């Protein structure tokens, strides 16, 4: 299944997870996500998500000037962000457990579910 | 890997500029928030993966907007004012749309210049207001319509200064009844500004028409010649006349009258100060020639009484050639009426009926 479609719902969570330990600038965060296994994540999607999380107060940002090159914008997690991370992580675990149960459960259960619906 | 010091590549800069253009409908803050640091991030990516990593800037902008929670494509900003709202809200909406439009990257630099020129606009609308006020002054006439239409200059300056001060105070937001937020004053101010904008070409058109009518009036006056110009020959005022008889002898005390018997007075500028008139009783006669010429101009009656140094002019030539006219029988003695020297022959012919000679 296309990872991009799956990512849409959980990119916030993934981004919060990779900045939890250490602040990072845009492409740094993209790299962390890709190194962590989300190889197809689009950088623009990540930058947009960073902006949205910042606007929601989950992230803080600061600009680090560079002497010769363009300035870097770093993002760090805020207490609000940590709350959101914890809550969404719990949601995700619940959701994924449910989905695992659906996927790994007995075939008749799936059939009866389909029949009753 | 430390990539902080990588210089900005031109292709990255161009790409980011295109992305920013695609975000032009967003507010300055949102656009900055979305693209700040983008150069650095993309420079890193290009350094790692090469220039091909930069794709279509529009598609990139769509992804960026979408992920950030904006509409993926810029919404077309229409200058549409929703109905069913109060006038104040509608004014606010129009103002907001206007601010958005002028904040666009391609318009903003021009708008900045226009904003800097606002005092010039205050001056222009003050002038329009002053003209409008001056027209209400009784006795208005369309002459002198450069600074203000025909009112007394002092009054004109006062009106202009008052209007200018008022316009500037309003422009600075310090003088407007009800404050800048009240609905009616805002609407009135808007309407007055529109009137001023329309008023400039109207007044300017009147100005042009009036300057043309003044020009043609002056032209016509010059063509007619005005009443107090005295005697004119070939477009120039005649200041003195030298008369000769038919045999070419200069004459003194020649009285000239026109076809209706009116004296042919000469009236040059400063005539009384520069020449000595003949006298009939106690009346000065300016139609008797030649007039005596003063050695120096006398501008006061006292100095005019002093005739020292004054004399009759000496002609360039003492005599002119003798002339004949078939109407006048040839006589040995000089003919009394044919006195014209060559140069003034035509004029003398016209005036002959009125010429008498002592």
UniProtKB/TrEMBL annotation, chain A:
InterPro entries: Metal_resp_DNA-bind_regulator (IPR052509), Tscrpt_reg_PadR_N (IPR005149), WH-like_DNA-bd_sf (IPR036388), WH_DNA-bd_sf (IPR036390). Transmembrane segments: none annotated. It holds the Pfam family PadR. It comes from the Bacteria. Residues 15-86 form the Transcription regulator PadR N-terminal domain. This is PadR family transcriptional regulator. It comes from Nocardioides baculatus. The lineage of its organism: Bacteria, Bacillati, Actinomycetota, Actinomycetes, Propionibacteriales.
Automatic annotation (TrEMBL), chain B:
Residues 343-358 have a biased composition (Basic and acidic residues). The chain crosses the membrane at residues 122-141, 153-175, 187-207. Residues 328-337 have a biased composition (Low complexity). Keywords: Membrane, Transmembrane, Transmembrane helix. Residues 298-358 are annotated as: Disordered. This is Uncharacterized protein. It comes from Nocardioides baculatus.
């Amino acid at each position: 299944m296309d990872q991009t479609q799956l990512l849409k719902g959980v990119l916030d969570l993934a981004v919060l997870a990779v900045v939890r330990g250490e602040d990072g600038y845009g492409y740094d965060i993209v790299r962390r996500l890709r190194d962590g296994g989300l190889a197809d994540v689009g950088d623009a999607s990540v930058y947009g998500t960073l902006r949205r999380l910042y606007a929601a107060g989950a992230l803080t940002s600061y600009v680090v000037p560079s002497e010769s090159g363009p300035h870097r914008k770093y993002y760090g997690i805020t207490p609000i962000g940590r709350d959101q991370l914890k809550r969404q992580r719990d949601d995700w675990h619940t959701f994924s457990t449910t989905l695992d149960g659906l996927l790994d459960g007995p075939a008749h259960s799936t059939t009866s579910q389909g029949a009753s619906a | 890997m430390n990539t902080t010091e990588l210089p900005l590549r031109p292709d990255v800069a161009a790409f980011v500029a295109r992305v920013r253009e695609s975000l032009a409908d967003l507010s300055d803050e949102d656009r900055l928030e979305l693209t700040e640091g983008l150069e650095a991030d993309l420079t890193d990516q290009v350094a790692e993966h090469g220039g091909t990593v930069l794709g279509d800037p529009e598609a990139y902008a769509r992804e960026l907007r979408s992920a950030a929670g904006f509409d993926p494509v810029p919404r077309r900003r229409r200058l549409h004012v929703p109905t069913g709202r109060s006038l104040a809200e509608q004014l606010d909406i129009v103002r907001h749309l206007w601010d958005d439009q002028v904040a666009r990257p391609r318009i903003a630099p021009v708008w900045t210049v226009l904003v800097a020129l606002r005092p010039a606009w205050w001056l222009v609308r003050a002038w329009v207001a002053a003209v409008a006020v001056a027209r209400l002054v009784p006795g208005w006439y369309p002459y002198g319509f450069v600074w203000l239409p025909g009112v007394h200059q002092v009054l004109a300056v006062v009106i202009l200064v008052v209007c200018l001060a008022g316009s500037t105070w309003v422009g600075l937001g310090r003088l407007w009844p009800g404050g800048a937020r009240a609905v009616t004053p805002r609407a009135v101010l808007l309407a007055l500004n529109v009137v001023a904008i329309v008023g400039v070409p109207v007044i300017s058109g009147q100005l042009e028409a009036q300057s043309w009518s003044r020009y043609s009036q002056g032209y016509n006056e010059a063509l007619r010649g005005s009443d107090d110009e005295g005697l004119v020959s070939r477009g120039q005022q005649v200041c003195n006349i030298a008369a000769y008889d038919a045999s070419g002898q200069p004459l003194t005390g020649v009285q000239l009258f026109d076809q209706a018997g009116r004296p042919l007075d000469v009236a040059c500028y400063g005539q009384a100060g520069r020449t000595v008139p003949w006298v009939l009783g106690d009346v000065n006669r300016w139609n008797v020639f030649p007039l005596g010429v003063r050695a120096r101009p006398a501008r006061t009656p006292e100095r005019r009484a002093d005739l020292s140094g004054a004399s009759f002019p000496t002609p360039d030539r003492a005599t002119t050639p003798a002339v004949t006219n078939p109407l006048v029988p040839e006589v040995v003695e000089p003919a009394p009426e044919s006195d014209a020297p060559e140069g003034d022959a035509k004029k003398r012919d016209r005036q002959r009926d009125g010429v008498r000679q002592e």
